[in-house]
Amino acid sequence: MSTDQNKFQAIISHCKEYGFVFQSSEIYDGLSAVYDYGQYGSELKKNIKDYWWKSMTQLHENIVGIDAAIFMHPTTWKASGHVDNFSDPMIDNKDSNKRYRVDHLIEGFAETLPQEAANALLAQMDELLKENDFAGLKTLIESNKIKCSISGTSNWTDVRQFNLMFSTQLGSVTDEASEIYLRPETAQGIFVNFLNVQKTGRMKVPFGIAQIGKAFRNEIVARQFIFRMREFEQMEMQFFVRPGTQQEWYEKWKEERMQWHLSLGTDPAKYQFKNHIKLAHYADAAVDIEYEFPFGFKEVEGIHSRTDFDLKQHQEYSKKKIQYFDTEINQNYVPYVIETSIGLDRMFLLTICNAYAEEDLSTEDKQDSRVVLRLPAKLAPVKLAIFPLTKKDGLPELARELMDDCKHAFYCFYEEKDAIGKRYRRQDAIGTPFCVTIDHQTKEDGTVTIRHRDSMEQERIPLSEVKALVLSKIL
Ligand code: GAP
To answer: What is the pLDDT of residues 297-344, one digit of tens each?
Structure first.
């Protein structure tokens, strides 16, 4: 059994062993902080995406979705402030040449201190970060004698900003004018399309635009598996509101997003809100939804009140009017924006961490255990596993008939090999909520054994009811 400390390592190994997540380009020793999703991982990820997309677009009449390109005109990033501001304070150790994000270095050190001292140190750090006081941050690191984990010395460079955007060249000519960025957030694709969508969709404020897509950040300290990656996916929604109503909508979206998380059945005690102390350059209020991962409470989603900053900037840089005429009040204005932004990969990690359980099933006579992913049925990669008890007597044919009937409605898995108990365990490990066994009785009375993943209970139900039962649990 895993202890709390090694649970995270066990989860990472499980993700690899069962085809959820692989290190990118593993045969070449991998690429740091870049990961690939395997056969079950890609299904789980897609199900999370679909659940978010449906909740945003299909269930909100005033939210529509778009799919903007990753490459955008370079001026986009000048206007958005990312060229000048999208950076983290970094410090290098002169002996090891290892580079640290200043907040991570100090937070790591704080974990070694008694609670009260740690809180005091973190409060000092927050204050200095808020003021962008780099000299003060360096003094804080030096006065606490914080050491590099590699060299063991406190021989530090000055603190300086490091831009997190990746750049590349468009076309064949390599000059400054052809330099473009890989988008560090999907939100800008929404802002630059504000008028396109508003006009063609005849959208009335308040309304939202949702998008799911890749984002790229040259994270300096990439760690904790898929928690912090250099290539990742975001699910973002910009909600455009009348100026002056942003506070009310901010509170509403805060609540709605938390309810979305809880709708997946997670224990509410595993979630908390954390207000931002240092606001991003575009925000007038911001809060994180944090989940208690095995390595502590960490951000999964941000809700930001982005004011009219982005639209106004694009208006200024593009020299095109980006305004909305509000017929209710007979006024033109640049709408304010409330953003909800959740990392798809973090939501994936949260889902796996929340679902992973090692269970001791030993009895007096027999040692036994299982690893089970208690995934919400609607997110599980495979919904139904279908097992003929034996490979003969017409049982595979009956099982195949059920497979053919169900596979258009949801993802099924068919298997004939090994004892039923072993087949159940393999499905537990990937989180399949239902397994059905076709046996000789099926031929006689048309019933099957359905086995429930979490309780491991088995019951006999008519074969003809299997599809409807699974459908009722996954919608
Ligand atoms: N448009 C606003 C925005 O991008 P953010 O807080 O920088 O805000 C939003 O990012 C979400 O994207 C985070 O809450 C997190 O879930 C995810 N995210 C950010 N950086 C990430 C990274 N390096 N790896 C994985 N997910 C990341």
So the answer is: 999 999 999 999 999 999 999 999 999 999 999 999 999 999 999 999
Domains for the chain: give ranges and CATH numbers.
5-66+181-352 (3.30.930.10), 382-474 (3.40.50.800)
Looking from the CA of residue 185, the nearest atom of ligand 1 is 4
| Closest ligand 1 atom to 230 CA | 23
Rounded CA gap, 241 and 335, in Å? 5
Peptide bond into 184 cis (omega under 30): no
**CB distance 41 to 35 below 8 Å:** no
Nearest CA to ligand 1 atom 7: 185
DSSP annotation of 335 = P
* Bridge pairing between strands 447-452 and 296-307: unpaired
The pick from 234, 277, 339 for probing ligand 1's pocket by mutation, whose C-beta has the most ligand atoms within 8 angstroms, reads 234
Ligand 1, atom 5, residue with closest C-alpha: 302
CA of 184 to the centre of ligand 1 (A): 9
Q: In this predicted model, what pLDDT tens digit does every residue of 244-298 receive, in sequence order?
A: 999 999 999 999 999 999 999 999 999 999 999 878 778 889 999 999 999 999 9
**244 phi-psi bin (left φ>0, alpha ψ -120 to 50, beta other):** left
Q: Is 185 in the pocket of ligand 1 (CB under 6 A)?
A: yes
For residue 237 and ligand 1, the question of a CB distance below 6 A is answered with no
Are 451 and 438 within 8 A, CB to CB?
no
299 lines ligand 1 (CB under 6 A): yes
Cα 433 from chain centroid (whole Å): 22
CA of 350 to the centre of ligand 1 (A): 14
The answer to whether the CB of 228 is under 6 A from ligand 1 is yes
Nearest-angstrom CA–CA distance, 106 and 139: 12
Q: Could you tell me the distance, in angstroms and rounded to a whole number, from the CA of residue 345 to the centre of ligand 1?
A: 10
Q: What is the pTM of this model?
A: 0.89
Q: For the range 436-440, what are the long-range contacts, defined as Cβ-Cβ under 8 Å and sequence gap of 24 or more? A: 436/384, 436/385, 436/386, 436/387, 436/402, 436/466, 437/387, 437/388, 437/389, 438/386, 438/387, 438/388, 438/389, 438/395, 438/398, 438/399, 438/402, 438/463, 439/389, 439/395, 440/389, 440/393, 440/395
Amino acid in the structure at residue 286: A
Whether 301 lines ligand 1, by a CB cut-off of 6 Å, is yes
Question: How far is it, in rounded angstroms, from Cα 125 to Cα 106?
Answer: 8
Rounding to the nearest 10 degrees, give the CA dihedral for residues 197, 201, 202, 207. Answer: -70
How far apart are the CA of 111 and the centre of ligand 1, in A? 23
Q: Is the CB of 44 under 6 A from ligand 1?
A: no
Q: Using 50, 70 and 90 to split pLDDT, how confident is the model at 131?
A: confident
